[in-house]
From TrEMBL:
Keyword Protein transport included in the entry's annotation: yes
Gene3D superfamilies assigned to the protein according to its UniProt record, in alphabetical order: Mog1/PsbP, alpha/beta/alpha sandwich (3.40.1000.10)
Family that this chain belongs to: Belongs to the MOG1 family.
GO biological process annotation, one example: protein import into nucleus
Species this chain originates from: Leptomonas pyrrhocoris (Firebug parasite)
Protein name: Putative Ran-binding protein
InterPro entries membership: Mog1 (IPR007681), Mog1/PsbP_a/b/a-sand (IPR016123)
């Protein structure tokens, strides 16, 4: 059965994306950094984050996937040797159609000219006091890089547990695990539907 989805406005309507209707805005119940939009589904433990970062000039396109994925693993408290099956692929423009073409009337600079997707399993505990009760979590991270003078990198990350430790806090909350098809569909649809409505959201390089 297809997953019910709806269009969600991000950053005050400056961007939008299509997400499952089961995902709710995390800012409704906790503080979220200004450069992030976070949506979660408690029943499956899934979360999707759209994040805006300053351009990493020292990171080549070929290295961007691993660079940002390892940075995310560090934030998740997952040592690099606890990542399984890490793989990066370059995404073709038809995977992000609303960002791969310059908007009509623009100078041509407002488009994504390189994107990649890194996936793998990370061993993550939800809280720092749950060492030894880590869950196996699928983490997929798309990096979308833009033609200068735009100085922003867009990261789209999707995570969900594939195995929940029976003694972890997640075991009391997660009601079911997403199938591989569901998680791939959610991530791919988010990337394909991501759209910039107001380009003034991005600061041009000086």
């Amino acid at each position: 059965m297809p997953v019910a989805t709806h269009t969600v406005e991000l950053y005050g309507g400056a961007m939008r994306v299509r997400l499952p209707t089961s995902m709710t805005d995390a800012s409704d119940f906790r503080q979220v950094p200004d450069n992030q939009e976070v949506y979660t589904d408690a029943d499956t433990g899934a979360s999707l984050i759209v994040e805006l970062l300053s351009r990493q000039h020292n990171v080549a396109n070929a290295d961007a996937g691993a660079f940002f994925y390892h940075d995310l693993a560090k934030d998740n408290g997952c040592p690099l040797d606890q990542i399984e099956g890490e793989a990066t692929i370059e995404l073709p423009p038809n995977a992000y159609p609303l960002l791969s073409a310059s908007p009509s009337g623009s100078s041509g600079a407002q488009r994504c000219d390189y994107a990649c997707l890194t996936t793998g399993l990370q061993r993550i505990s939800k809280y720092t006091n749950e060492a030894g009760r880590e869950n196996d979590v699928f983490v997929g991270l798309a990096v979308l890089r833009f033609t200068a003078p735009l100085s922003t990198e867009i990261l789209v990350s999707f995570s969900c547990p594939t195995r929940v430790h029976p003694d972890s806090s997640e075991a009391k909350v997660v009601k079911r695990l997403l199938t591989e098809a569901e998680r791939q569909s959610t991530l791919q649809q988010a990337i394909a539907s991501l759209e910039v409505v107001e380009w003034g959201l991005f600061v041009p390089e000086e």
